[in-house]
Amino acid sequence: MGYDIDRFVGYVNEGLLCSICRDVLEDPLQAPCEHAFCTACIHGWLVHHSNCPEDRQMIDVSLLRPLYRYMKNDLNRLQLHCKNREYGCEMVCSLESIDRHERECEYSQIPCSNAGCTVQIERRNLDGHLAVCEYRSRECPNGCGYTILSVEDTQHNCVAELRTELELLRSEMICRVEEAKHEMESRLDSQRRHMVQKESILQNEIEELKSQMSRMMSDVRSLMAAERQHRQELEQAELEKREL
């Protein structure tokens, strides 16, 4: 749907009206036959038809193009009233800037920002409404530190709330202690397994060293026996030499 033509100041060229809704073009597209439409209007039309609603020439979504630049410029220069005119806004601005103005217009109806509140209020009156809104939140005046809604004032009990928070904190602390306990046990088990593994490796290394030592002692004894044998042979040879 386009912009209501009654919002515009002065004459609006016929070529700037949507051929379907007959309002001023909004987000316009143009067919090859040069008839212009609001994007929403022509897309809705082509769901059930395959021709131009103005001259019945065959068209397809893929053939639609943006409005000619000179027509787009003429469209953007049109002057119109803010949509909040009925609420008191007297702003008149160009079509090109109307969306920006209406997003910030002080007369726009916006929802209350408090959860649970369904009131629609003018932006300029929002602060005043928030100050008295029954869904506004505030800190407990009795000093318990809780944030409460005005509608819950009669049900708020500081002692009960603090007791509930204490129980929650106790439960959370117990959970954290259990988590820390499990984590420490897991670390100890891991370290114990690591120590057992290291002990096994060291034991194997000790056994290997013992085996090497035993072989070395055997070799030493063999060398000593060979040396004695050699010495005896030398002595025998010396005796034979003397006899000769």
UniProtKB/TrEMBL annotation:
InterPro entries assigned to the protein according to its UniProt record, in alphabetical order:
Znf_RING (IPR001841), Znf_RING/FYVE/PHD (IPR013083), Znf_RING_CS (IPR017907), Znf_TRAF (IPR001293)
Signal sequence coordinates: none
What is an example of a GO molecular function annotated in this UniProt entry? ligase activity
State where the TRAF-type zinc fingers lie.
101-144
Q: Which residues form a coiled coil?
A: 192-243
Task: List the Gene3D superfamilies hit by this protein, alphabetically.
Answer: Zinc/RING finger domain, C3HC4 (zinc finger) (3.30.40.10)
Keywords in UniProt for this one? Answer: Coiled coil, Ligase, Metal-binding, Zinc, Zinc-finger
Residue intervals of the RING-type domain? 18-56
Q: Kindly give the PROSITE patterns that the UniProt entry links to this protein.
A: ZF_RING_1 (PS00518), ZF_RING_2 (PS50089), ZF_TRAF (PS50145)
Q: Where is each TRAF-type domain found?
A: 101-144
Protein name, as recorded:
RNF41 ligase
